[in-house]
Design a protein that fits this description.
Elements: H1 8-16, H2 23-40, H3 44-49, E1 55-58, H4 65-76, E2 80-84, H5 100-137, H6 143-146, H7 150-155, H8 158-170, H9 180-191, E3 199-206, H10 209-215, H11 221-234, E4 238-245, H12 246-261, H13 264-278, E5 280-284, H14 302-314, E6 317-320, E7 323-326, E8 331-336, H15 348-352, E9 356-359, H16 365-373, H17 379-388, E10 393-396, H18 398-414, H19 421-430, H20 432-437, E11 445-448, H21 450-462, H22 464-470
Parallel strand pairs: 1-8, 1-9, 2-5, 5-8, 10-11
Antiparallel strand pairs: 3-4, 6-7
């Protein structure tokens, strides 16, 4: 399911495609990932003893902390979840239970494995869906349908017999003489998507709205989901007829056929293994649960959250609806700005569980310039592509990109430093009029040069108070 064959240099090279700078952070996560591969090649006894070296990323917002963790997980196909430490509170107070982190991680792993397993049966499900569409167009009673009720075989179903007799009387005479070749030809046309725009009527399952009403409210997520599943399995699914295109019906039938093919026991086993051996948890705002000076004492739940997080980071067994999940070898990456508090303000036990500390640097003008142009699907490429849909040819000149980078750096210095996210606000401001007028303009070639950028931003940037609100 997950690929650990990449060398540290290969991992860094892949991260470089999406994230500018922060070489030390990339190096640290690459080593942590490679250590998992090394661990798998040791004896079982040794594997149990080697625990992940969790990472603490320190740096202002918008410099790439979250993106590094997210891209890392995507790179190796590992279960990943991002949470914010401030959403959790000490047991006994209003807030989320920290064990919910692991339950959510397992749920993500289940979805990942389901998607991968679905690829295996995709062709089979598609074929079965097409057969069901043919059955709607051209009904042909199957053996299963004839024998679906054993009591009918013994006693007969008078109502069904009457219905069948009525249908046979109403059926067009020409269908009686139709050869199997005609039916096969229709099936081939369905498979070739030649009938996708035709409208048909099919039966679709619908959830009982009364059950949905019962389950709304402020109950906990886990209890709500479990209760919904329990009721769903007890209550028979209602079906109603709906008219739709063949294309839409194929999607519904395909999903139903995939459900029949997938073995949930196998999926759960694979997902739990992937979670335990390759899961990555990214905990943001970690600095917010550190004490801001011991003299005044901690907030009511800040230290409590740390002590609740500690067991799952150290290694514990969390009960989920899919079964127990061990957290011993899950990689935890924590991140925070640590402007007010320091990593040393965390409780000593938790500090010891994050042995790798990496300080990420604030972005320079050159970094902003690279972010605008170098990554795959960079911001400049995104805006060019978006406006091209309106027939607008957007051209960013070298001096225009330099000026955008300079303004982003300046605004970050004078107001709040939000890192690369500043580029989004500045680009939106620069291209606001262009995006608004795009469908109606005659001149479709727009050059974003230094003069264009300065004209749009100069007044706002000069007025610091205005910058706080607009940029």
């Amino acid at each position: 399911m997950y690929d650990m064959e990449l060398t540290p240099k290969q991992i860094v090279a892949e991260l470089d495609k999406y994230i500018v700078g922060q070489g030390e952070a990339k190096k640290s996560v690459a080593i942590a990932l490679r250590n998992r591969w090394r661990r798998k090649h040791l004896s079982e006894n040794m594997q149990e003893e080697i625990i992940p070296k969790n990472i603490l990323l320190i740096g202002p917002t918008g410099v790439g902390k979250t993106e590094i963790a997210r891209r890392l997980a995507r790179l190796v196909g590992a279960p990943f979840i991002k949470v914010e430490a401030t959403k959790y509170t000490e047991v006994g107070y209003v807030g989320r239970d920290v064990e919910q982190i692991i339950r959510d991680l397992v749920a993500n792993a289940i979805r990942m494995v389901e998607e991968q397993e679905s690829q295996t049966y995709k062709a089979k499900a598609e074929a079965e869906a097409n057969k069901r569409i043919l059955q709607v167009f051209w009904p042909k009673k199957t053996t299963e349908e004839k024998l679906r009720n054993p009591m009918d075989i013994i006693f007969g179903n008078e109502e069904e017999k009457k219905n069948e007799e009525k249908k046979s009387e109403e059926a067009p005479k020409q269908l009686e003489s139709v050869s199997p070749d005609r039916r096969q030809k229709m099936y081939e046309e369905i498979c070739a998507h030649k009938m996708d725009d035709r409208e048909i009527e099919i039966e679709v399952a619908e959830q009982d709205k009364a059950i949905q009403g019962i389950l709304t409210g402020n109950s906990t997520e886990e209890l709500t989901n479990n209760f919904q599943e329990m009721l769903g399995s007890i209550m028979p699914k209602k079906k109603k007829k709906k008219k739709m295109t063949v294309s839409k019906a194929r999607e519904i039938f395909r999903e139903e056929e995939l459900e029949k093919c997938l073995d949930m026991d196998v999926i759960v086993d694979k997902a739990i293994e992937a979670t335990e051996q390759a899961g990555i948890v990214f905990i943001d705002e970690f600095d917010k649960i550190a004490e801001k000076g011991r003299s005044n004492g901690p907030d009511v739940s800040r230290e409590g959250v740390q002590r609740d997080i500690l067991p799952i980071v150290e290694g514990a067994t969390v009960n989920t609806k899919y079964g127990p999940v061990k957290t011993d070898h899950i990689l935890f990456i924590a991140a925070g700005a640590f402007h007010v508090s320091k990593p040393s303000d965390l409780i000593p036990e938790l500090q010891g569980r994050f042995p790798i500390r990496v300080e990420l640097q604030s972005l320079t003008i050159e970094d902003f310039r690279k972010i605008l142009t170098e990554p795959d699907q960079s911001l400049v490429k995104q805006y060019i592509a978006l406006l091209s849909t309106e027939g607008i040819e957007l051209e960013f000149t070298e001096d225009g990109i330099d000026t955008i980078a300079e303004f982003a750096y300046k605004v970050n210095l004078e107001t709040e430093n939000i890192g690369a996210r500043r580029l989004h606000t500045i680009l939106e401001k620069i291209l606001e009029d262009v995006a608004y007028e795009a469908p109606d303009v005659d001149d479709t070639h727009i050059v974003v040069n230094s003069a264009f950028v300065t004209n749009k931003l100069n007044d706002v940037v000069q007025n610091v108070d205005l910058s706080h609100y607009i940029l």
